């Protein structure tokens, strides 16, 4: 143990065991999957990220060793731990320079966004030296002022190679393309069973997988277009889930992005119309539904039903507001009478 501590110190890493794990130190060949909770802090104790509350959920980190994760120091320190162990690692700046980019991806994932959203199409080192905002003030400050960080890890599980199904991010390009139809169907089955959140996550995973491949192609090229045509139906399924989950503004964003590229996509107009209707954008909803009927007259009955439901909600809202205003003026008149007779 002392020998290990000396070796880590020589690499600019200081380890402090908070609670020991169980059993012997595992063997960690390449391809081993590790699951752990992490908390990242500055040396003054300021918390940057905590996997137990990331995006309002407890979301353990999973790594497959040997897959060249963007933050190599996590692979370096986790192989010094036993299952169940909790330890604190203070790591020199040379190990933490890429953390802002890693954190941005993890934060995106925690709120259901593309892990690469907001990142420029260049290598990590180039992004570090650019002035491109990561969309988070604390990460922008850390990117401009690299410094040592403290990682508090709790090793939850160690799975040897071959004992688990690969996550999409750990697959080769060929494996990703082969896996997407299966993930798509898994999402469809979950949707049919009414497990809407789980279905949305499946669709999101498949989309992220294809977008990762798409980033390697030149926009507009044949391969890029082919991948985009695979992404679009998945994104529409994801939007249907988000409508059912009440995430209307996300639906507006995604459907608008589809229509920017595919002006005659009826499903995108229909879903965007439903989202506009849900957030009281009456004029925009009517325009989208009119476009649906123009592109596919067979959907006229479905559009009429949506319009009736929207009009009923608008009337109910107006009635509620009228009653509230009437009550407000009634109280105001009572107060004035009381004041004058006093």
From TrEMBL:
GO cellular component: cytoplasm
UniProt xrefs under InterPro entries: AIP/AIPL1/TTC9, PPIase_AIP, PPIase_dom_sf, PPIase_FKBP_dom, TPR-like_helical_dom_sf, TPR_rpt
Extent of the TPR repeats: 266-299
Keyword Isomerase: yes
Reaction(s) catalysed (UniProt annotation): [protein]-peptidylproline (omega=180) = [protein]-peptidylproline (omega=0)
Keywords (A to Z) from UniProt: Cytoplasm, Isomerase, Phosphoprotein, Repeat, Rotamase, TPR repeat
Enzyme class: isomerase
PANTHER family: AH RECEPTOR-INTERACTING PROTEIN (PTHR11242:SF3), ARYL HYDROCARBON RECEPTOR INTERACTING PROTEIN RELATED (PTHR11242)
Protein name: peptidylprolyl isomerase
UniProt key word Cytoplasm: yes
Main location: cytoplasm
PPIase FKBP-type domain location: 31-90
Function, in words: May play a positive role in AHR-mediated (aromatic hydrocarbon receptor) signaling, possibly by influencing its receptivity for ligand and/or its nuclear targeting.
UniProt-annotated stretches for the region Disordered: 316-342
Location(s) in or outside the cell: Cytoplasm
PROSITE patterns: FKBP_PPIASE, TPR
Source species of the chain: Albula goreensis
E.C. no: 5.2.1.8
Gene Ontology MF term list: peptidyl-prolyl cis-trans isomerase activity
Composition-biased stretches (Low complexity): 330-342
Assembly description: Interacts with RET in the pituitary gland; this interaction prevents the formation of the AIP-survivin complex.
